[in-house]
Design brief:
heterodimer, A: alpha/beta, FAD/NAD(P)-binding domain, seven-stranded mixed β-sheet, 17 helices, globular, B: Elongation Factor Tu (Ef-tu), domain 3, Rossmann fold, six-stranded parallel β-sheet, 19 strands
């Protein structure tokens, strides 16, 4: 008898849902986490009187109790819906080019169209047609993949087949003339980490559609509350979490998973492993080289690590409205050239864009009375950060942060004067806390070739499963779902 | 028809498959990157430092500076004001205490920590009395949040120091004066006795040589002939010493009483929260004196703490749970020992603890029953999960 049925490596979103699902189904599960608390990205930290949300900007896929989205069902099955409270946001985002352009898109198709038409009356027809396309595309995608239509074909789903992996830029250019309009519609590009030229239409369309249909949400107490709630389900279902204990090696015997060796050298046996670590470190650091299938080695080498991020966590000694902040999510660009902004993620050049999330707009209790918090974020790849001598790291970090704050100050004068607590995370921070190559919280880059249309979901090793952004799509909803999928696959196999 | 079929009917599918084949053919060999993540992290935040005492400097009758060099050749950078948490094995107990680094971050050949004798100081008195040159110590890497942040601190800084609370300021003052940084510092340094002021000579010397650094000692129990400022660091005194307080950033570091006294004085000056930074200072001398302590629990009450899947240990009401665990041979991760860093976050399965105000427990951690063991005092028998 092995010590456990399943060992889950990593208590990020995917590791947590995998552990909780398996434990709830009666499996004996050990959850190993290197850090002292669950969540991975889904966490928070305290500075002064502020508890800063680390990673969650807008939770997708939840939907309302009346119109539930897929995530609501999932969290319901994990018995966490009763343990935490969600805050619904009525706005997708505001897109701004300071001094030139600004539009706010509500989480409602009719209102989005009206807002865009008001700004771009010349392109009214195109706007209608584009949103028809997005909605039709997404409905077809839902029928094929979520309803699992057994008769799916190109004839039945022509829009899906025509547009799925087309570049978003191509479609936007076909439909629209104004670069401001294109910027406004493509504003969620940062959530995937690819500019429209490389972002598939399917990703851009699904983001717009899903956030509009299921509304953006946040969580009372932040994403740490979600992580704590899932862990609570795991513990109550008899699961064994072990913190401050990383996994070092996965033991293979006769071509099958046999157990895990922890960082303290303890050997623990099991039949299945779910790795919520990056696929790169799982194959390259935790498995003996002789067990890594050649095919997987090629797969890992043919894919590129996605961006990490640079976030300034700002605690302000005023209410959002005192500065004029009236929407939760904003994208500020100094120009409309997204391709150039993407290129700048590989440099320390002065940033030309940033995202801003103010959680207190939708949830006035998020921060103490009379105060609010704002996360100012721009994505960054890690490579150039790795070239900084350690002794200069802090200076470089502060310089880059100041340049981002300068952008915010243009739109919200007085922002800098209201700062009461500030901390900064860089790609190095994410590398440290996640252990992922490149600090890549989105996993690999999400080109068309990296979608699940092309990447087989299996690990190539009997008993080894993956959960998290490295094994599929990135973001809260997809990673939470990935753990449940891994759990289902294991459960099916256990009961054969 | 299967799903696989429709995938292949997507426009552009074949082209992408062909691209994938090319990419795999010329794939980067990821075996070459093995260990990169650890290498990067170990240059900035190694888990543990192995240190050797290279020099011991007598500072005052009650304090010494320990110069610590790396046993394996590398000390990570830090921000002036940060501390290391030094571990010791003493009388069969493994415990630790955080000490601010007093040396300048401009060099990392060594870290200086300056230790002052304290009544019943478990680790401090051991360092002062037992540790000699050549001894080995282990510590965490530098951590802590009491440092200059250029994004919002401005250039006019006022340091309020009390006793050994001078040490983080010493690092900041050395950095600013040595590197010629564009920051004005006024140090108001409270001490009982002018002869027991750590770094007094060096501070006077630096103040004389650098126009952007002002040193103002304030003596609470002055000898009869003393001619400088006396008493405590009051609002009135600060108003007198600093012509304009408005754009200044105040930093406070000292013993417990210093905060109790100085923070209200800063309020009197009208300083908003955002203009006051304070270092954390560990467990209070007498927890039962804290606001909110339940009167029915006495200092020497002892409770049983059951560790899930492990042993049951005794724990005194007036000692942080972390210390009771250490007495029982259980060391849990820690860095600040002041309720701030959250490394000792522990799940409370049953029972009740007292956590003084200011312990930085996350909202949802409170909801789900997590405590910071370094600043949690048992009020009942407990069951915990480590």
């Amino acid at each position: 008898m092995p010590d456990y049925d399943v060992i889950v490596i990593g208590a990020g979103n995917g590791g947590l849902t995998a552990s909780a699902s398996l434990a709830k189904r009666g499996a004996k599960v050990l959850l190993l986490e290197r850090h002292n608390l669950p969540g991975g990205c889904a966490t928070s930290f305290i500075r002064g009187r502020f508890e800063f949300e680390v990673a969650l900007h807008q939770l997708s896929g939840l939907g309302t109790p009346e119109q539930p989205g897929p995530l609501r069902g999932l969290l319901g099955q994990l018995a966490v819906l009763d343990k935490i409270e969600f805050t619904e946001e009525d706005t997708l985002y505001r897109t701004m080019v300071p001094g030139e352009f600004e539009v706010t898109l509500k989480a409602d198709r009719t209102e989005i169209i009206a807002a865009l038409k008001e700004k771009f009356p010349d392109e009214a027809d195109a706007i209608d047609k584009f949103f028809d396309l997005v909605w039709e595309f997404c409905m077809q995608m839902v029928s094929i993949f979520f309803m699992r239509d057994p008769e799916a074909s190109r004839e039945k789903y022509p829009i899906y087949c025509k547009y799925a992996i087309k570049s978003s830029k191509e479609v936007l250019d076909d439909y629209f003339k104004s670069p401001f309009l294109k910027l406004a519609i493509a504003s969620y590009w940062g959530y995937v980490g690819l500019p429209p030229s490389r972002l598939t239409f399917m990703d851009m369309a699904m983001l717009l559609w899903a956030y509009t249909e299921f509304k953006p949400f946040h969580i009372k107490g932040g994403s740490q509350a979600l992580s704590n709630a899932i862990l609570d389900t795991f513990i109550k279902a008899g699961g064994y979490p072990r913190f401050n204990c990383g996994a070092k090696k996965i033991i293979i015997s006769d071509g099958k998973v046999k157990g895990v060796i922890t960082e303290t050298g303890e050997e623990i046996t099991c039949d299945y492993v779910v790795s919520n670590a990056s696929t790169i470190s799982t194959y390259m650091e935790m498995l003996d080289e002789k067990y890594v299938p050649d095919d997987k080695l090629k797969m890992l080498g043919s894919r590129s690590v996605g961006p990490s991020g640079f976030t300034i966590y700002c605690g302000l000694d005023c209410e959002p409205q005192d500065l004029g902040i009236d929407v939760s999510t904003q994208f500020i660009s100094l120009n409309t050239d997204i391709e150039r902004q993407f290129a700048s993620w590989r440099t320390f050049d002065r940033p030309e864009m940033c995202g801003m999330s103010c959680y207190d707009v939708a949830d006035p209790d998020f921060s103490p009375a009379g105060a609010c918090q704002v996360a100012v974020i721009n994505l960054q790849f890690a490579d150039h950060w790795l070239t900084i001598p350690p002794s200069q790291y802090a200076d470089v970090k502060y310089r880059y942060a100041q340049a981002l704050l300068d952008i915010v100050e243009k739109v919200y004068p007085g922002f800098g004067d209201a700062l009461e607590e500030v901390d900064v995370s860089s790609p190095i921070t994410h590398l440290r806390y996640l252990g992922h190559p490149g600090g890549g919280f989105y996993g690999f880059e999400k080109f068309a070739k990296d979608s699940n249309l092309f990447i087989p979901p299996t690990s190539g090793i009997d008993g080894l499963y993956f959960a998290g952004a490295w094994a599929g799509m990135a973001g809260f909803q997809p990673t939470l779902e990935s753990g449940v999928s891994a759990a289902k696959a294991i459960y099916r196999k256990m009961n054969k | 028809m299967t799903k696989q079929d429709i995938r292949q009917q997507i426009e552009g599918y074949a082209e992408i498959q062909a691209e994938i084949e090319v990419l795999r053919k010329y794939a980067h060999d990821r075996r070459a990157d093995r260990g990169t993540v650890d290498r990067v992290i170990n240059l900035l935040h190694p888990k543990e430092l192995k240190l050797t005492v290279s020099e011991i400097i007598e500072e005052t009758a009650s304090s010494k500076t320990f110069r610590l060099i790396s046993a394996d050749g590398y000390l990570p950078p830090f921000q002036a004001g940060q501390y290391i948490n030094i571990f010791v094995n003493l009388a069969g107990i493994r415990s630790s205490r955080p000490y601010s680094i007093a040396s300048s971050p401009s060099q990392t050949a060594y870290y200086d920590v300056t230790v002052r004798r304290v009544e019943d100081g478990f680790v401090s008195n051991y360092l002062l009395d037992e540790v000699t040159i050549g001894n080995s110590l282990t510590s965490t890497s530098p951590a802590g949040l009491f440092y200059y942040n250029p994004l919002f601190h401005g250039n006019n800084l006022v340091f309020l120091a009390g006793g050994s609370g001078i040490t983080p300021f010493m690092s900041m003052i050395r950095e600013v004066t040595d590197r010629g940084l564009d920051r004005n510092i006024t140090l108001i340094y409270g001490s009982r006795d002018p002869d027991d002021m750590i770094f007094k000579d060096e501070l006077e010397d630096r103040a004389q040589r650098h126009g952007n650094f002002t040193f103002i000692p304030v003596i609470s129990e002055p000898p009869p002939s003393y001619s400088g400022h006396t008493g405590f660091i009051t609002a009135e005194l600060m108003q007198k010493l600093l012509d304009d307080v408005k754009d200044r950033m105040f930093y406070v570091c000292g013993p417990e009483e210093m905060y109790t006294f100085c923070l209200p004085e800063l309020d009197k000056l009208g300083m908003p929260k955002k203009r006051v930074r304070q270092e954390v200072f560990g467990p209070p001398k007498d927890i039962t004196m804290e606001a909110g302590w339940p009167s029915e629990v006495k200092k020497d009450d002892t409770f049983e703490v059951q560790i899930r899947g492990g042993k049951t240990i005794p724990a005194r009401a007036d000692e942080p749970l972390m210390i009771s665990l250490e007495r029982a041979g259980i060391t849990i991760p820690t860095s600040c020992r002041s309720g701030e860093c959250s490394l000792c976050r522990t799940k409370l399965l049953s029972g009740e603890v007292f956590q003084p105000r200011g312990v930085k427990v996350r909202k949802s951690d409170r909801q789900f029953g997590y405590i910071h063991a370094c600043m949690a005092y048992p009020l009942k028998d407990l069951e915990i999960m480590l």
